[in-house]
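user: can you give me the structure for this one chain? tokens are fine.
assistant: on it. calling the predictor now.
[tool input]
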Amino acid sequence: MAKGKKKSKKKDAALIELNVQLLKRLLRLYEQYCTEQSSIPSVEVTKTIRALFEEGDSLSKVFLRPNPTKIVKPAEGADQIGLTTEPPPIIQTYVRPFLRALLTCRLSALKEFSVWNICMDLLDCIELGNYIKLETTVLQTVSLYDCLLQPDPLYRLSASFNICRTLRIVNLDFNEFGDEGCLLLCNNLVGNQCITRLSLTYCDLGPVCGAPLGRLLVQTALAEIYLDGNHFGCEGAYDLIKLLLIDCEKYNIDKEEKLRADMESKIQEAALRVQQGLPAELTDAEKKERKKRKKKKKKKLSLDDMPPCGPFVTKIHLFDNEIDCLQPDGFAVVQKTVDAFARLIEISEELEELDLDENVIGHVCGGIILDALKCRKESKY
């Protein structure tokens, strides 16, 4: 036993040393590529990597953001002498040097990659896409907040999303790529079997985006969608859930038919038992035997297992999306949209969250939503 313990300790030490060497190489390449691109390394990233040297752990999370800027005060008496001190040029932090370092090292432990408030151009998106497409990548979350993403770079980046089997969450908040960017993104996500959460808040999306995003909710693994702060209006909001509502209605009809068929089967079985001189109801022993036959061990889901493919929608967020009466045929259009959401609340078994805050739907439509919630409570969904 003692020998086995020594071997495991040696193995752990070897693994730690391997991780440290890989991280040192990553940091060295990152600083080198920053120099080549006239960029400054992210203080947060370098601190994170250096902290892992002592721990010997792998790099699993990265958060790139601009370094805090220092305010340079003018020297005392400079104004009296007539000297004007110009502030030194601010060297920017770029994303590409770190992505190049990741690709060179083929780092395979990274699970979360986040960028905040750093502009990402076409080349940045191509490099990130290349990393996502690596066979060894186990990336689970990609978050690009306020990166000034434009439609073409987004299209090139999102082409890699379906290739990465482990990718589950994509956040593209505060990137105003508009309708064009959203439509290109939807085209690339048509065959999505992995991503379960998509966040496109404050991306300047209009009503035209409702239908393609709605198709993704029904045809792909997407379960949570966040669209706060856009301009979907009544038309876009209705189109977003139209296909989902149809599918839920169909599911309920099929469920009722199955229950009816099961009931008829039980009645026939009871009649047959009576003919055979047996009690109409199953005995306790027979019920236990049937339960044993039906019992199966539930398989634990891992990253290699694909999430259930749609529709399996649990969360829809449409906070502040101009769903109001300020449009032609205002009240009638709002009521049609609210009726659709109310029906979804009543019949969708999976739905857990629906956010319609900051949309001026009025008291009447608010009452419709309230009645739907009461109905859902009675249904015990």
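assistant: here you go. Residues 7-66+92-204 form a domain with the Leucine-rich repeat, LRR (right-handed beta-alpha superhelix) fold (CATH 3.80.10.10). The two ends are 54 Å apart (CA to CA).
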